[in-house]
Design brief:
alpha/beta, TIM Barrel, Lyase, Ornithine Decarboxylase, Chain A, domain 1, 2 domains, 12 helices, 17 strands, binds pyridoxal-5'-phosphate
């Protein structure tokens, strides 16, 4: 079942929330998230060593959501002190934490080590940095591979040869050899070369590259990996014309490659892990915003009470988010509008030249598929405040999981 058919946001639910919280606000649908998690875990239940997703905290760093996902069997993928502290405060420790960060401050490494996280090193030089600044390497280390010209990347993440992330192949082999000499005994391998990828062949090809690398590591360095981390980047269909990734085909193809490459080389103890964020929560988040003004200049503009400071993706990447009008879901699309926020930036637009039913002041717009890299990317430019987050529980009850920012929050760091 495609995630979009799980849509449960209706007038009754929005009305209920509006009694407590004013627009704009985010809603996350627990029911949808659970279905996605169960589906993912079911298709990967063949992995001999086990499969686990480490949810990318940066996608939706709300502790209540992280806790929900952890209860559903997920670890966390963290990349900063704050994300490590979220894990710690939820009692998520040890190898339930992947620490995949770059340009890492000493304090973050220290915290990751203290929590017993799996540290995924982004550069060969970090080994010396770590031993000089912090101490002995942990027993388990992981390295992020950057395949350079061997993979293409995509617009969201850029070409691997232009990317600041990861080790070249030559550096990677040096890193495993060196860390082994330095006392590491257990090893993982990671890559992440695309973001929001819907092309299953590309994803499979990435896995093949990692599986082959695992064999090469065994042959050349006598290192048997404990896990292969496929990274994040599994896409979701933002546009209604796009199709969901068929994860059954993805999983079946991975199994075929796993058997042919890893099993045939006596490496069938290797676990498969991932750091999917967007795929897990993206389709199950909605930004609810009210129309403040409808104005006509050379074009028609609908001004809403959210701005790009609440959802940056359209302005940042030209990303598409489907927009519906509460109660007008089946009305004919008759007008063409730009849907805008109120920042003093002309790219503060959620949609440009979007064909919509007629919109009037007071209408409630629903921006779809904002459950990942949505609220999390928010900022306060122009003194705009970040909106509240609501969890729509399975039984349709409503839980406030982050209050909206208030002016006092905006001023709280200022020295007058
Ligand atoms: C290292 C790393 N892992 C995982 C993710 C999650 O990606 P996605 O939410 O697209 O699955 C990201 C996203 O930026 C990332 O940088």
């Amino acid at each position: 079942m495609e995630s979009r058919y799980l849509f449960r946001i209706n007038k009754e639910i929005v009305g209920e929330i509006e009694k407590k919280v004013s627009t704009p606000f985010y809603i996350y649908d627990e029911f949808g998230i659970e279905i996605t998690v169960n589906k993912l875990y079911k298709v990967f239940d063949w992995v001999p060593g086990g499969y686990k997703n480490f949810f990318a905290v940066k996608a939706l760093p709300n502790p209540q959501i992280i806790s929900l996902l952890h209860k559903m069997g997920m670890g966390v993928d963290t990349s900063s002190m704050a994300e490590l502290v979220i894990a710690e405060r939820l009692g998520i420790v040890g190898e339930d934490i992947m620490f995949t960060a770059n340009n890492v401050p000493k304090e973050d490494f220290e915290k990751a080590l203290e929590l017993g996280a799996i540290i995924n090193f982004d550069d060969l030089s970090y080994l010396d940095f770590f031993t000089k600044e912090i101490g002995n390497l942990p027993e388990l280390v992981c390295f992020r591979y950057n395949p350079g010209n061997l993979k293409e990347g995509n617009d969201l993440i850029g070409k691997p040869t232009e990317s600041k992330y990861g080790l070249t192949k030559d550096q990677l082999f040096k890193a495993y050899a060196k860390s082994k000499q330095m006392g590491a005994e257990r090893f993982g391998l990671h890559t992440m070369v695309v973001s929001n990828m819907l092309n299953v062949e590309y994803l499979i090809d990435t896995a093949r590259m990692l599986f082959e690398l695992a064999v090469e590591l065994k042959e050349k360095l006598d290192i048997e990996l404990e896990f292969i981390n496929l990274g994040g980047g599994l896409g979701i269909p933002y546009k209604r014309s796009e199709k969901e990734v068929d994860i059954e085909i993805y999983s079946k193809s991975l199994k075929y490659l796993y058997d042919r490459i890893l099993k045939n080389n006596n490496l069938s103890h290797i676990k498969i892990v991932s750091e999917f964020g967007r795929y897990i929560t993206g389709p199950h988040g909605y930004l609810i915003t009210k129309v403040l003004h409808v104005v006509e200049k050379y074009k028609k503009y609908v001004g809403v009470d959210a701005s790009m400071s609440s959802l940056m993706r359209p302005a940042l990447y030209g990303a598409y988010h489907h927009i519906t009008i509460l109660g007008k879901e089946y009305k004919k699309e008759k007008e063409i509008y730009d849907i805008t926020g109120s920042l003093c930036e002309n790219n503060d637009k959620f949609a440009i030249d979007r064909k919509m039913p007629v919109i009037i002041v007071g209408d409630i717009l629903i921006l779809h598929d904002v459950g990942a890299h949505g609220h999390a990317m928010g900022f306060q430019y122009n003194g705009k405040l970040r909106p509240a987050e609501i969890l729509l529980k399975k039984d349709k009850s409503i839980k406030l999981i982050r209050r909206a920012e208030e002016l006092k929050d905006y001023f709280s760091t200022i020295v007058w």
